[in-house]
Design brief:
Elements: H1 2-11, H2 13-19, H3 22-32, H4 38-46, H5 55-60, E1 65-72, E2 83-92, E3 97-102, E4 108-114, E5 117-122, H6 126-132, H7 147-160, E6 166-171, H8 172-181, E7 185-189, E8 193-199, E9 206-211, E10 214-218, H9 220-228, H10 235-255, H11 260-265, H12 267-273, E11 274-276, H13 280-291, E12 298-302, E13 309-313, E14 319-323, H14 329-338
Helix pairs in contact: 1-2, 1-13, 3-12, 6-7, 8-9, 8-12, 9-10
């Protein structure tokens, strides 16, 4: 959630001062938030759109807000657009109560990608399908700068039976840079984590990482390692670790501490590795809404922990998760019952 604050800074006067060039700042904001229009920069001062269906109107009328967070490898990875992390943060504005839903990467779902209909695939491939930008295959609505995230959001919405109001996608380099830009995050590791085969970006080798139990400050590299380690524990445990990182970032956001030089150095990775369908005024709104959440008011739901899913082998050692009942109706009812 820290990247919402960064987006606001990029769009505002503070960003202009940091990066010295107003033209570069506008370019950077439009790279991160392709739906940004000139009017959106004015709205940072005059206020966001209050019309029917706008985010501001939904918050004012206490409608539930659902945000999708996606993390992917980015350039230099074997599968740069597979979303290893998919979290839905659902917030009730008036009470500030929230639910975080961790979605399994290998959930077998219908992806509304093709112009001829749905295709079946793993949930984490939806963003990648949109990133291909294949004009002979993709529906026209996904052939846009926000297409990959829009397709991933539509797939998640269809799967869990809930609308997605906004999405944010961040790659590995931007994730590390963002955490370093806020001076690291404080995380209480509940139990020791040891992974002797953590994949390194250097020559496709592996390294040995270890985390002791207890409270500690993690920089971008260590936070990424803690969130991404796969072979050490289960996928469900990995989801819990990702939620810890998410709330540690939220806690740091509430403090308002930003390390200026680090933010400047993070400008490149942010521009290249963060994408959202939000505009700066809406990002500003959500930043304030998210920063009002207290961790004790948050319910954590990991779908992989529920009895509603089961493993299925599709052949060629391809294991996926499917709804035990055969359809996603029970999963959708389960999710609806957990929302604020």
């Amino acid at each position: 959630m820290r990247w919402l604050r960064v987006l606001q800074l990029l769009a505002g006067i503070g960003a202009v001062a940091l990066f010295a060039s107003a033209a570069w700042t506008v370019s950077a904001v439009r790279a991160v938030a392709p739906k940004t229009s000139p009017e959106d920069f004015v709205a940072l001062i005059t206020g966001p759109d209050q019309g029917p269906g706008s985010l501001a109107q939904k918050i004012k009328s206490n409608q539930r807000i659902n945000m999708l967070f996606l993390a992917h490898g980015g350039a230099g990875n074997d599968n740069p657009d597979f979303t290893d992390t998919m979290l839905v943060l659902s917030i009730r504005p008036s009470s500030h109560q929230a639910t975080v839903i961790s979605l399994p990467r290998y959930l077998w779902v219908d992806i509304p990608a093709g112009s001829n209909g749905f295709v079946e695939g793993k949930l984490y491939s939806a963003f990648a399908l949109g990133a291909v930008q294949d004009t002979t295959f993709l529906r026209e609505q996904w052939r846009a700068p926000t297409g990959p995230g829009d397709l991933a959001a539509a797939t998640v919405a269809t799967t869990i039976g809930q609308p997605i109001d906004a999405w944010i996608a961040v790659d590995v380099k931007a994730f590390e840079a963002l955490i370093d830009a806020i001076g690291g995050i404080r995380v209480t590791v509940p139990k020791a984590l040891d992974d002797p085969q953590y994949p390194s970006d250097v020559d496709e080798k592996t390294i040995h990482i270890h985390f002791v139990a207890g409270t500690q400050i993690l920089d971008g590299t260590r936070a990424l390692q803690y969130a991404r380690s796969r072979l050490s524990t289960s996928e469900a445990d990995r989801s819990h670790r990702q939620e810890l990182i998410l709330f540690a970032m939220l806690s740091k956001l509430k403090g308002g501490d930003i390390v200026g030089p680090a933010l400047i150095s993070a400008a490149g990775p942010i521009k290249d590795g963060v994408r959202t369908d939000l505009t700066p005024p809406d990002a500003n709104l959500l930043m304030h809404l998210v920063s009002s959440i207290r961790q004790q008011d948050v319910i954590s739901v990991t779908l992989e922990d529920s009895p509603l899913l089961m493993s299925k082998n599709l052949g060629l050692d391809q294991d996926v998760l499917v709804p035990r009942a055969g359809t996603y109706q029970q999963v959708q009812a389960y999710v609806a019952g957990k929302l604020p």
